[in-house]
């Protein structure tokens, strides 16, 4: 049976872009007679807040969406992600990185597909003594995937991209995770990262169709790599259009896009939001 999910991060209030993504996902789940699941991706303790999680549930209910309970909360699954990270470590694919943000920026060898500094590999070949000394000293540490080794081990990476309708011809794409360099698998403040948690949970929830915005197309290449390394199934992916503001820019929390709550206060009904999103 098809299983879809909407997986927002509770680090702010939902805006029209999120509403579009949630409605798109639910629409296709219903059309295919599948399940629509909700998952809160709240692993980042510095940005995620329980009040945003509450607000997300309330806004989605207001929009008329429903999902099976309990909602999966990633913050309750840190031990599971740590076990998966351990598997990568046992394969010799993780290494500790002690670099600060500014050190990463200074040694960057370009930018990754998200426009962030591409890690220059400063800590890739630290000696065992240096690692032991810095860990014993309690230096903040994150763990990175050795991208080149991981890709060599995984071999050719392909995945399926399709509109969710069964009539659409699926395309087989090659993943190009090398563009990301050595991504962080375990962050300094939590034993996981977005990339690790998302692939572990898409498998745990038996997701068959991942529907996400086009802006997340490049990160899918890392997800496919992790799925192969960890022996997890790869769902089909659909990259939907983004809702743009008047200036043609993607709506974003940081650029002050009006939230669903703002719109509600201005008198928008849930039906108005659905119409604006095209559902
Ligand atoms: N949690 C991610 C976000 O809010 C999206 C999840 C995904 O589709 O992988 O940006």
Automatic annotation (TrEMBL):
Keyword Nucleotide-binding: yes
Family, per entry: Belongs to the class-I aminoacyl-tRNA synthetase family.
Coiled coil stretches, renumbered: none
GO-annotated molecular function: ATP binding; glutamate-tRNA ligase activity
GO annotations of cellular component type: cytosol
UniProt xrefs under InterPro entries: aa-tRNA-synth_I_CS, Glu/Gln-tRNA-synth, Glu/Gln-tRNA-synth_Ib_cat-dom, GluQ/Sye, Rossmann-like_a/b/a_fold
The Glutamyl/glutaminyl-tRNA synthetase class Ib catalytic domain, residue ranges: 5-259
GO biological process: glutamyl-tRNA aminoacylation
Keywords in alphabetical order: Aminoacyl-tRNA synthetase, ATP-binding, Ligase, Metal-binding, Nucleotide-binding, Protein biosynthesis, Zinc
EC numbers: 6.1.1.-
Record protein name field: tRNA glutamyl-Q(34) synthetase GluQRS
The encoding gene: gluQRS
């Amino acid at each position: 049976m098809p299983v879809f999910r909407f997986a927002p991060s509770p680090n702010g209030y939902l805006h029209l872009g999120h509403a579009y993504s949630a409605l798109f996902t639910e629409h296709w789940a219903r059309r295919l007679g599948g399940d629509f699941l909700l998952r809160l991706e709240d692993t980042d303790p510095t940005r995620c807040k329980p009040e945003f999680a509450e607000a997300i549930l309330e806004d989605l209910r207001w929009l008329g969406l429903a999902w099976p309970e309990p909602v999966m909360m990633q913050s309750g699954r840190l031990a599971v992600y740590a076990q998966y990270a351990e598997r990568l470590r046992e394969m010799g694919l993780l290494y500790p990185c002690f670099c600060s943000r500014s050190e990463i920026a200074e040694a960057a060898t370009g930018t990754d597909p998200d426009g962030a500094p591409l890690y220059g590999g400063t800590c890739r070949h630290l000696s065992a003594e240096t690692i032991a000394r810095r860990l014993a000293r309690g230096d903040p540490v994150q763990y990175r995937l050795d991208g080149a080794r991981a890709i060599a081990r995984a071999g050719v990476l392909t995945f399926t991209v399709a509109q969710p309708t069964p009539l659409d011809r699926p395309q087989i794409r090659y993943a190009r995770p090398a563009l990301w360099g050595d991504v962080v698998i375990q962050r300094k403040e939590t034993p996981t990262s977005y990339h690790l948690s998302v692939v572990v949970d898409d498998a745990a929830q038996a997701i068959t169709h991942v529907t996400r915005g086009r802006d997340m197309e490049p990160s899918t290449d890392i997800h496919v790599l992790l799925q192969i390394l960890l022996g997890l199934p790869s769902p089909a992916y659909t990259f939907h259009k983004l809702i743009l503001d008047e200036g043609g820019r993607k709506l974003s929390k940081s650029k002050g896009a009006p939230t669903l709550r703002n719109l509600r206060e201005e008198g928008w009904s849930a039906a108005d939001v659905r119409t604006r999103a095209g559902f």
